[in-house]
Design brief:
Oligomer: single chain
Number of strands: 14
Bound molecules: adenosine-5'-triphosphate, magnesium ion
Strand content: 5-15%
Largest sheet: 5 strands, parallel
CATH topology of the largest domain: Rossmann fold
Number of helices: 20
CATH architecture of the largest domain: 3-Layer(aba) Sandwich
């Protein structure tokens, strides 16, 4: 009995008075409860989290999203009824949380939700150990992915900084992890920092650490993320969001290779390889005075660009099947294949959220699918009616039809170009020429 109780660890983030009043009930139901502020949440191991959403979290939800993404735990939101009525809050809560409770608490309901969330976290293998990143590989056999893999093989062993650019969800973090895994530093830490997700007043101490007593609330010495990466790789995600003042400090560190903790006077030598990623146009940010040119040149020694999914439709079916298998383990549903309509709808879709969008749609599809296969509706994709298509010239129609044919055939036969060409009734060279013309591969 005691053992089971010790396993059910609940973390309450940014608790309010109502949360404190819950404690006796939770503890007598066997929960081992700890609490902390949002910025320290990832330092606690827990099986389940309860987050008291404050106005500041709702105004800057990226910090919450980042924490949830990295925590590998189910989260329950606590908010008051007015907050729930605020614009976009409902969508945010539904997307990122297992469930929510409004204040004041109904203790017995909270206990039921915690039990369900705990069961679900267990089922998904969450809350026990962090996700094994080794499992996540850069998949795909389209030309951009083959070229990317080749390039990473060359860049990984070097010590140079690499700037990773690409739209959201195209695999920038995956590229950074791959570079680390294939480098000589692979046995040492890989530390990722999302520069856009840490509240501005905390970034300095988050990156550089602080000494005890450096400022009000600094009760203990804290090792910063840069120092924690010593010997390994430091991944500065969304570098374009780093405030200018911190850009100067980061540049100094990159030049001098040592840091000073906030409130400290001793320089501490730190050896890291720096990788940075951005989905914003840094050149434009430089023009507008939002990004330092000297820092840009320091980080942009080597560059990797991740291609959007719409330019490599040939990878769609492989990735979709991969996610169907992956999420079947997580959701406990059997992996399903995709119906012809679903494949056609995927081929037509523009994928603004790239691979992350595909992964989310497949996960949703797997959960919703009632039949033998996943249908377009299960993926939340629209089966387009003829009359909804925008009108255009005859040339536009021909162009669209040609592109559609290529996408459709690639979704089915991405691993055999000869068959794909044959199905369309063209020679292999013509097929490749058309792929090139439509920038599909
Ligand atoms: N080629 C790929 N093969 C397998 N999984 C991929 C691939 N590209 C991306 N993913 C998966 O898609 C998701 C999004 O990738 P990632 O977080 O690396 O993208 P990102 O470019 O950093 O996005 P953002 O700009 O939104 O942070 C992750 O789950 C990642 O594992
Ligand atoms: Mg990212």
């Amino acid at each position: 009995m005691h053992e089971t109780a010790a396993l059910r660890r609940l973390l309450i983030v940014d608790p309010c008075d109502d949360c404190h009043r819950l404690l006796p009930g939770l503890e007598s139901a066997g929960w081992d409860v700890h609490s902390c502020s949002l910025d320290l949440a990832l330092e606690h191991r827990c099986d389940l989290g309860l987050l008291r959403l404050q106005e500041s979290h709702l105004r800057h939800p990226d910090a919450v999203k980042d924490m949830i993404k990295r925590s590998n735990t189910e989260w329950i939101a606590v908010l008051n009824a007015e907050q729930l009525r605020m614009q976009n809050v409902g969508d945010f809560v539904c997307e990122w949380f297992f469930d929510f409770h409004t204040l004041p608490f109904d203790v017995s309901r909270v206990l039921v939700t915690l039990g369900r969330a705990f069961g679900m976290a267990r089922l998904r293998g969450k809350g026990t150990a962090p996700i094994n990143d080794q499992e996540h590989e850069l998949l795909g056999d389209s030309r951009p992915i083959l070229e990317l893999r080749k390039l990473l093989g060359k860049l990984a062993p070097t010590e140079s900084p690499v700037l990773i650019r690409g739209e959201s969800g195209t695999g920038k973090e995956l590229v950074a992890r791959t570079l680390h895994r294939q480098s000589q530093r692979c046995e040492m830490p890989f530390i990722a920092i999302n520069c856009g997700a840490i509240p501005e007043h905390l970034i300095q101490s988050e990156l550089f650490g602080h000494e005890k007593g450096a400022f009000t609330g600094a009760h203990q010495r804290k090792v910063g993320r840069i120092e924690a990466a010593h010997g390994g790789t430091l991944f500065l995600d969304e570098i374009g969001d780093l405030p200018l003042e911190l850009q100067a400090n980061l540049l100094r560190f990159l030049q001098e290779k040592h840091i000073e903790r906030v409130g400290g006077s001793q320089p501490i030598p730190v050896d890291v390889r720096v990788l940075a990623a951005t989905h914003v146009d840094l050149e434009k940010a430089i023009e507008q005075g939002r990004f330092r040119e000297d820092l840009y040149y320091r980080l942009n020694v080597l560059q990797v660009v991740t291609a959007p999914l719409r330019d490599r439709h040939g990878d769609l079916s492989m990735l979709a099947n991969h996610f169907s298998h992956f999420y079947s383990l997580e959701t406990g549903r059997r992996p399903r294949s995709f119906s012809d309509h679903a494949l056609a709808a995927m081929g037509r879709h523009n994928w603004p959220g790239n691979v992350r969008e595909l992964a989310n749609r497949v996960r949703r599809g797997l959960v919703l699918a009632e039949g033998r296969q996943i249908e377009a509706q299960d993926l939340g994709l629209h089966v387009m009616e003829q009359e909804e298509q925008p009108l255009g010239t005859l040339e536009d129609y021909k162009h669209r039809a040609e592109r559609q044919a290529l996408c459709d055939v690639l979704v089915r036969h991405s691993n055999n170009m000869s068959i794909a060409a044959k199905v369309l009734g063209v020679s292999r060279p013509t097929f490749y020429r058309l792929l090139h013309k439509h920038q599909i591969r």
